[in-house]
Amino acid sequence: MVGGGAAGLSAALVLARARRRVVVVDAGAPRNAPAAHLHGFLSRDGMAPRDLLAAGRAEVTGYGGHLVDGTVDAIEPGFKVRLADGSSLAARHVLVTTGLRDELPGIPGVAERFGRDVLHCPYCHGYEVRDQPLGVVSSVHHALLVRQWSSDVLFFPHTATIAPDDRDRLGARGIRVVDGTVTRIVVEGDRLRGVELDGGTVVPRAAVFVGPRFVPNSGLLTGLRCAVDGDGWPAVDPAGRTSVAGVWAAGNAVDPRAQLITAAGAGSTAAIAINTELVEADIAASLAAFSATAERQVADAVLGASRHGM
């Protein structure tokens, strides 16, 4: 496994329990590191992301899986997995779960507060800021969605143009449009206080939702010439198979909408499919060895009979 998040560790756990030799290489830079808590993961709601990973790592190693802290520079056909420290690993199958990166709006303060009180996913963090004064930047869709969690939502178009029917939709839901370019997120006392516009006006808000551009961390897959879809994301079937035999991918590396629990499920699905292919390969190898042994026994019997006849 390349990537030790929810998808990679879930896959490793399934394969380790299937008595496969498993190595997980992880760079230690999870996407959700800035978040204090994770949500929507049944039985783990409210847990710190680092604690989920620690529990997962302990479970994988408990079944004999191996964890390597490092970065994979390249995967060569075969498969030879090259690490940044110069070492390498050999594998029969490779599962890539390297996630994605969030390209945030270039508004001062957004990157610094992202995952705290500058948020993206209302399903992940909306409940924690419910009934508070909220702002949404650029995305009409996000503003209409966030309205589910608070009756006090302001929409900041920033540099976007709003279609007349979208203004009507926002108005119908009680969402006021605040025109003007957003110049920065105002923070005081390590808390978000508001949104500053180009005229210097600061609009008080308790939290702000933004829409990042999702970019897959797919360099290892494209390096193997795995096919991509029309949007440039690695193409996989429902089990996580890429277009290259023996190469698999799961989680946010192929699905920008995957929540933690979704990614974990995708990792488990891929692991079961990988094990199925390995079982078939093992059967084929056993049959070949069995046939070769049978042929040698027949040949030895014929030779023995010939010698006896002499």
UniProtKB/TrEMBL annotation:
Q: Which residues form the FAD/NAD(P)-binding domain?
A: 2-265
Q: Which domain of life is it from?
A: Bacteria
Q: What is this protein called?
A: Thioredoxin reductase
Q: State the organism named in the record.
A: Phytohabitans aurantiacus
A Pfam family of this chain? Pyr_redox_2
For the keyword RNA-binding, the answer is: no
Q: Which reaction does it catalyse?
A: [thioredoxin]-dithiol + NADP(+) = [thioredoxin]-disulfide + NADPH + H(+)
* Alphabetical keyword list: Flavoprotein, Oxidoreductase
Which chain regions cross the lipid bilayer?
A: none
Show the InterPro entries listed in the entry: FAD/NAD-bd_sf, FAD/NAD-binding_dom, Ferredoxin-NADP_redctase_2
